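Project outcomes to date are best conveyed with an example. Our students and postdoctoral researchers have been running inverse folding experiments weekly, and each run begins with a structure described purely in tokens. The record below, which covers 323 residues, was selected by the lab manager from last quarter's runs and is presented without edits.
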């Protein structure tokens, strides 16, 4: 007979049991969180305020920055609070809310990355029809569909996981509520409800991967037909950041969701979850900023303008330094 328990809260193991080490982990995660938060918000602000950065590619990049901020803001603040208060518990509704938001934002980010690959495909393979195909209405539709479908998928997935009781321990060997860990303690009847959602997730993930591979196969074929090496390099430079960001996101997701199960994972086994939730939001702004001259020029145009609002009189010493 299956041991069914009424779970009202979960225990997140985190990274350390010693209070001093928990405080140190909280400080490290706070620093990483602030870096991810400020860098993504800076990119979003530049792309929003600079009139020269209003192309469809930058519209999708704004959505990607918002999703990165949203994704990293779900598990990390809770972990920081738990580490500072030395309390590793999370309520059942709080855990469900984490699962809902993480799965929703992750799915939406996958769709946005797919839309970005389609944008690059149209720009390189169909340049004469680019403005018609990637119109403002089309971009809004693709972005809205990405957020909506991601939210719907997250709701279905969360409803399936929490539709039944849990069997076994209420300990989650992660620093946040993690889908694989919850599936390990779910009762068989709950798993039967979750399996269709898992099948849909796999199909959607494979569909997005196939679409991105299809886009870049055609992009590579089109670029290789360009006679000018300089034009080839410029075309590749617009695609390389997206490829790097997509690979980082998908590899970190595979490490979390497809790794072999373990009953008592060591500390090193929890690092993939950190890579999945923290690494992409930190790296994505750096990758796009360092590889994109337009964004770097937009940053240079925006940053000198910010102190100008604080120093309306250029005769003051501080304003002379800025000028």
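After processing, the design step wrote out the following sequence:
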């Amino acid at each position: 007979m299956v041991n069914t328990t009424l779970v009202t809260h979960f225990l997140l193991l985190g990274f350390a049991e010693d209070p001093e080490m928990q405080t140190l982990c909280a400080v490290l995660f706070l620093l990483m969180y602030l870096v991810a938060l400020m860098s993504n918000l800076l990119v979003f602000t530049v792309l929003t305020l600079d009139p020269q950065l209003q192309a469809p590619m930058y519209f999708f990049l704004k959505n990607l920055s918002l999703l990165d901020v949203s994704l990293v803001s779900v598990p990390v603040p809770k972990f920081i609070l738990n580490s500072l208060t030395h309390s590793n518990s999370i309520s059942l509704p709080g855990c469900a809310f984490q699962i809902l938001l993480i799965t929703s934002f992750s799915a939406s980010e996958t769709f946005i990355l797919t839309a970005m690959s389609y944008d690059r495909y149209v720009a390189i393979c169909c340049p004469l029809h680019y403005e018609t195909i990637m119109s403002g209405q089309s971009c809004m539709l693709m972005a809205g569909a990405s957020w909506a479908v991601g939210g719907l998928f997250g709701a279905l997935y969360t409803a399936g996981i929490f539709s039944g009781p849990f069997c076994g321990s209420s300990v989650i060997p992660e620093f946040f509520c993690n889908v694989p860990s919850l599936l390990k303690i779910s009762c068989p009847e709950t798993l039967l409800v979750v399996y269709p959602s898992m099948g849909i997730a796999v199909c959607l993930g494979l569909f997005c991967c196939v679409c991105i591979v299809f886009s870049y196969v055609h992009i590579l074929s089109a670029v290789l037909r360009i006679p000018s090496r300089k034009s080839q390099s410029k075309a590749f430079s617009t695609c390389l950041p997206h490829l790097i960001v997509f690979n980082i996101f998908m590899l970190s997701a595979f490490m979390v969701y497809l790794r072999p199960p373990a009953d008592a994972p060591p500390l090193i086994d929890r690092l993939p979850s950190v890579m999945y939730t923290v690494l992409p939001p930190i790296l994505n702004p750096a990758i796009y900023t360092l590889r994109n001259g337009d964004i770097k020029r937009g940053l240079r145009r925006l940053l000198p303008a910010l102190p100008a609002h604080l120093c309306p009189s250029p005769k003051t010493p501080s304003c002379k330094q800025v000028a």
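The longest strand covers residues 9-12. Residues 188-224 form the longest helix (37 residues). The training component of this project remains on track.
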